[in-house]
User: Fold this.
Amino acid sequence: MQHRALVEGSAFATAVGSSCSWCDSQAPEILCYLQSFWTGSFILANFDSSRSGKDANTLLGSIHTFDPEAACDDSTFQPCSPRALANHKEVVDSFRSIYTLNDGLSDSEAVAVGRYPEDTYYNGNPWFLCTLAAAEQLYDALYQWDKQGSLEVTDVSLDFFKALYSDAATGTYSSSSSTYSSIVDAVKTFADGFVSIVVSLR
Assistant:
């Protein structure tokens, strides 16, 4: 969000005939530092902590950097980016065995999501906001794929896709292909599942 604020601050300054030299100099620095949060399989939420670092805040971060005009950019963790999707799976899966509410649900089914697996606040219960954030990231990704007319499955995001569509394989799929339609349908069903969990617990 800090990176996005500086980029947008610079654009606003230019639009009103001014400039923001601090925005221009610091935005690239923050973007560079942001890459250090990628572990290779998920986005680390906190450094130097006894916690796993898997945290719903990383889902929120992806949502807040969502740019409808952007591609599936890994460096800013756009919702449809391979890194953001891999992270989504890691974060969601970290709650599958924690809450009895999630017992018996398969990897292709949505689950109740909490703040982070080690949470003990009010016994570490699932949170509506976190569960809906898991849905919102996927809805944003669906929007991006539709806008660009294709989706890409990479080595980084393959596990995310295979959990929802067993025939998923690395490659780029045009929106006119049957594979694209199958994957998009599976992702939408998955996203809707998070919303259904919240609705059922109202």
The CA atoms of residues 34 and 75 lie 8 Å apart.
